[in-house]
Design brief:
Layout: E1 4-8, H1 15-23, E2 41-47, E3 50-56, H2 68-82, E4 85-91, H3 98-110, E5 114-119, H4 127-132, E6 142-143, H5 152-163, H6 165-168, E7 202-208, H7 214-222, E8 240-246, E9 249-255, H8 268-283, E10 286-292, H9 299-310, E11 314-320, H10 328-342, E12 351-353, H11 362-376, H12 382-395, E13 400-401, E14 404-405, E15 408-415, E16 420-425, H13 433-446, E17 455-459, H14 466-471
Parallel strand pairs: 1-3, 1-4, 4-5, 5-6, 7-9, 7-10, 10-11, 11-12, 16-17
Antiparallel strand pairs: 2-3, 8-9, 13-14, 15-16
């Protein structure tokens, strides 16, 4: 993107609504409750012919530095300092407040371009608030309605005037066309299997119960206080994405809101936050479930892991706050035993003790993430699968139903991410679930596929005499 724009203002003036309007998606949570946004959220904005990065920020308020509002203000000020331009949003419907005046003074001291945006200008009686905005000394306000999309052309012109034509429309770089190695595909029945592509960006969602240390963990990865943290539970509301490189590979991490038991989620805002976290899980390729090592394996922890696996995502367990454990060896042995016993559906799942506060175990966690993603993307040739299937039936034949034994004839992998297999067999409807578990456990052991969900589907050949039976 050519430049970065920060949306700032006091709470409940419509910053997140404007953010969603500019990115063209409902990424940021929007509610009538003031102070919904807490972290700064970036997005790719389009405004007529302009393309830029937009950053949604928390509402600015006067607060003590150590308080939650004070830490939110620090995050917003960091976004202003990193941006090329600020959109200072005021509410034309309710008019100015002393907080608006203080914020205008703060923006003026920054010495960066500022566009005064008078939102909710479509409302009856908004003219007084619009003209009152001139008193802030930031130039002519731009009237818009973020909710209804009015005034977007005027906002575009104001951005171009503030930055200049050259900055708003940088020249496009010429891209040289070079020879590219095109990977050769192998036949489905061949012995060759595609290698794991470690050059693609990896999407990782960080999930867990409230106050497990998810945001602190991501900040430690980034090496900066990019996400809002603190002792209060439930600070994170939006699912915020951040990018960074680990050993030359791009990692896109999603910080999510803490997920409590469904019965405890009553407020509308928390329901929106949890729904946003569920979307992040479905969008991610791998999910790190963060446990509080001081109180691990709460019932909600098990529900979250089960949810991730049912969605077909690869999972890694991170036992956080390891720096607070007094007897690490004994606790680690106990956690391994409980992992195997309480999560039988995730046999072999990788579990790493870490400390987001000190950075202990983060390299090992990242290596576990890469290894698990490799298994999640794994493909096995059809020839190997059918030789394996024949051996499995010799060791443990399928059961007989009504005196006739079920025959498993043919097996192939139909997809990866997660690995899914199709088996052609007779009487697939009569095959017990226990035999499917036997095959899944065999796949895990013989093809080194721990910790990821494995799907097996059955298909019975069509009966050519079925139509005749129906006629009789």
């Amino acid at each position: 993107m050519s430049f970065t724009v920060a949306i700032v203002g006091r709470p409940n003036v419509g910053k997140s609504t404007l953010f969603n309007r500019l990115v063209g998606k409902k990424l940021a949570l929007v509610d009538d409750t003031p102070g919904v946004t807490r972290d700064r959220r970036p997005g790719d904005a389009r405004l007529v012919d302009l393309r830029f990065t937009i950053v949604d920020t928390a509402g600015l308020e006067e607060a003590h530095e150590e308080s939650l509002q004070g830490r939110m203000r620090a995050q917003t000020e960091a976004a202003i300092d990193e941006a090329d331009l600020s959109l200072f949003v005021v509410d034309a419907k309710t008019g100015l407040t002393p907080v608006d005046t203080a914020l205008a003074e703060m923006l003026r001291r920054r010495g960066k371009p500022v566009i005064l945006v008078a939102n909710k200008s479509e409302a009856r009686g908004s003219d007084a608030g619009f003209y009152d905005a001139y008193s802030l000394g930031l130039g002519e306000p731009t009237p818009i309605s973020a909710e209804h999309g009015q005034g977007m052309l005027d906002l575009r012109d104001a951005i171009v005037a503030a930055l200049g034509e050259e900055r708003a429309f940088p020249p496009k770089e010429d891209v040289a066309v070079t020879d590219v190695d095109i990977p050769q595909s192998t036949g489905a029945d061949g012995e060759e299997e595609p290698a794991y592509d470690d050059s693609k960006p990896l999407r990782v969602a960080i999930v867990g119960r409230p106050n497990a240390g998810k945001s602190t963990l991501i900040n430690r990865f980034l090496g900066e206080d990019r996400l809002l943290t603190g002792p209060e539970a439930g600070i994170t509301r939006d699912s915020i994405s951040v990018e960074w490189d680990w050993r030359g590979r791009t990692i896109k991490m999603f910080d999510t809101a803490g997920m409590r038991r469904k019965a405890k989620v009553i407020e509308k805002l928390e329901k929106l936050s949890v729904a946003d976290a569920l979307r992040a899980i479905r969008f991610a390729e791998l999910v790190v479930v963060v446990f509080d090592a001081t109180i691990p394996f709460e019932k909600q922890d098990l529900h979250i892991v089960d949810l991730v696996l049912r969605e077909g995502r690869a999972a890694v367990l991170a036992f956080n706050k390891w720096d607070m454990i007094e007897d690490p060896q004994a606790v680690l042995a106990d956690l391994r035993e409980k992992t195997d016993r309480l999560l039988p559906q995730a046999r072999g799942i990788r579990a790493v003790p870490i400390s987001g506060q000190t950075g202990r175990g983060l390299d090992k966690l990242m290596q576990s993430i890469i290894d698990t993603d490799e298994v999640w993307n794994k493909r096995i040739s059809t020839a190997r699968l059918n030789r394996w299937l024949e051996q499995q039936q010799v060791q443990h034949p399928p059961p007989a139903v009504s005196g006739r034994r079920i025959k498993l004839k043919y097996m192939t992998q139909v997809k990866a991410r997660p690995p899914a297999f199709m088996i052609s067999c007779t009487r697939s409807d009569a095959l017990p679930e226990s035999y499917t578990r036997y095959l899944i456990n065999g796949l895990r052991a013989d093809f080194d596929m721990p910790s990821v969900p494995i799907r097996i589907h059955y298909r019975s050949p069509d009966n050519p005499y079925e139509s005749k039976k129906r006629r009789t």
